[in-house]
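#dry-run=false #mode=assembly
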Amino acid sequence: MDRRLEEVLYLMQRIISGKDRFEEQRLKAMDWKYIYESSRKNSLGLFVFDLVRESEFYKEQIEREEEKGFWEEWKAETIWRAAAEYQKQYALKRVLEKAEEKGLTPVVFKGCVLSALYPDFALRISSDSDIYIELEEKEEMVHILSEEGYVIDEEDSKEKVPVFWNEKSGHMIELHTCLWEDYTGAKMQILEAAKLTARDTLIRVPVAEGLQVWTMEPTRHLIYQMFHIIKHFVVKGVGLRYLLDIKVFVDHNIEQIDRGFFWETMEKMEYAAFCERFFEICGKYFQMDTRLLGARRVELTKEQEAIFLTDMMKIGEVIEGRNVSWELLTIMKPYLEGNVQGPMSQAARLRHLFFPGPKELPDHCGYAKRFVWLLPVAWIHKAILFVLRRLFGRRKKMSAQQKIQATQYRLSMLAEMGLLQDNQRERK
Amino acid sequence: MHISDQYIARRIVGQPMLIPVGQKVVEQEEILNLTEPAFFLFEQIEQGRKRSEIVDAYMQHAGYPEEKKKETEQNINIFLRSMKEKQVII
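#status=ok
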């Protein structure tokens, strides 16, 4: 395993298990510029700074003129971003209190429910708050958000997940009326049947700063989180923090998790093999309670662990500095939805890439989602934009060949983590 | 006397801070570093202590002798007045 990956994993273990037993010598040998970049990329930067700041190593570093600036900047960034988490928490509190006063039941998931399980909630940064609301309560909820100064962010909104933004507080809310966004297909039907947000299953939990929220009961919340992780893993890649999120969630809720229901649902969705591997790594590296696995223990080779953890640390990045988000989504989406009946040939993937369906179009071609007859116009629009961005754009875009290369890499990761059935493996 | 609902005093990575959490525009500059004594005073106010109790608690916390009480009381009053002017304390 790459030494720098080992260093990041070591720091992650300390985040969870506490600051004692720090190996000062080990800190001295670390490549801190790299640790800073990779922990930041994986949303772990605040935790890592908090961890290191009490070490003798840190005290020595800030005395050194050539290193002082780097550490002071990291400290300032940590303070500013943690303060922003407090501000978001209070903005969320105002919205939820108002909604509940009006008799609504906003269901909060991931985000502040998970951050409350860490030693310091404000060090777990998030880009937004996720709230699920029943369709019949949506209008009233949107009205409340508007009263609180939130405006819709059309560009980032999806049909079933409008995004609201409060310019004053900087708080962003994703208002879900469907937990699997606009995805459709066999696997979404299984999630639907699991009734993840059924009113009679919701629980009330305390989170940070004296706030109490409605959330999914632990088994359903875990099912959702694994779906969410797999969604990102399939279409793009997931960061290392998800391992810690699952570790703290499982350990906190192990007695309440209905293992039968969880594994039955994961089996139906063909996600069980991925979950076994994921939990095995959480158990091995972060001492997660492996009672969740029961007899489902899998043995991963060192090489398999390294491949998976490296992919996580790079968040799926296969070509350095290249933006892979929706381009991969276009091709990989059928794998997530469960709509791949057999192997998908390279020609079929190219068809998806150049001539995506209406739902697979990027946001700037959103008009063809509403008016399907404009689909050919959107393909031309997309092609022209692609050429212009390649020529003049600041953000590097992938060439078709690079996209195919990235897709093949992603598919190999899916196979490695047990997400491809034998009949879905690559066909030339 | 209490802290306005527009602010909270919290420790972030060991550093005492005054964080605006209200509905007004949030600027980075508004997040203030607090000194340790100021943070202690905010903690006392948050616990609902009266002015005289805060002075006593601070005297004890700082290990001051009784003869420093008047001076401490004056300093705390100046601090509280300035926080009231800024509407951090109501």
